[in-house]
Amino acid sequence: MLIGCFGNAFAAAEAMKTIEGPMENEQKNAWLSGSSSRLNIIGRHGDTETWKEKTRMEIYYRDIILRDYRESDIEDDIRWNTVETEWALWDAPWETEEDLASFDPQSFREEEMEGLKKAPQGFRWSLELDTSEGMHIGGVNAYLIDEDFQWIHEKDLKPGQKSFPALGVEVNESSCWGRGLGTQGLAAYIRYFLDNGKRELYLQTWSGNFRMLRCAEKLGFTECNRIVGMRHVRGAVYDGLTFKLDVEKFEKMFPS
Q: Residue 174: is its pLDDT beyond 50?
């Protein structure tokens, strides 16, 4: 399980750049490293009844696919919040224990079904993570931080205040841990941000999340802020860490 975040609040920020439009304007291809690593963004097509048939996003990269949320993901999320919860040991464990204890599957199911009635639009601040065989294993997401590396919602930004995306990835399916799929998913998501003009990117985690620390290093992130003793997890004290992406280093390792 890889988690790059200080908490569970992956902000549902509004789009900073819209990519919706007619099919001829939405079909985009970009080659990432690897012969089968194609970024494929699929847009509207036809006059159909549901948004699932009108617009979707799929990003293919090596052994993974990033895509929009769909109905079948709901039961996976319920299972990950009720039965298979080992991921919660690493995803902001100072928060997730309480979240799991209060999780209501029926309310969650109803809320997600309602959300699926709306078509995803604009820049994607979260995408689901599949294996190349189509197995749903987790997701990638991003939120905004300010110049002090604190989480901030777009609506709370003051005029002229700067904010930057902090990216994260989670592999909830424990059978898929240790295969580099989270690193591939985050690499593809980083490329998505870079290709959309967002080049100052960050990642946040805690010093006990060793998998995420290795992932950050592989992708070209370097530590830029440390809050000593910020987190207390299972009787031990850990630091809160923020990393900044070295874009030049990343692009050498993962060329477009």
A: yes
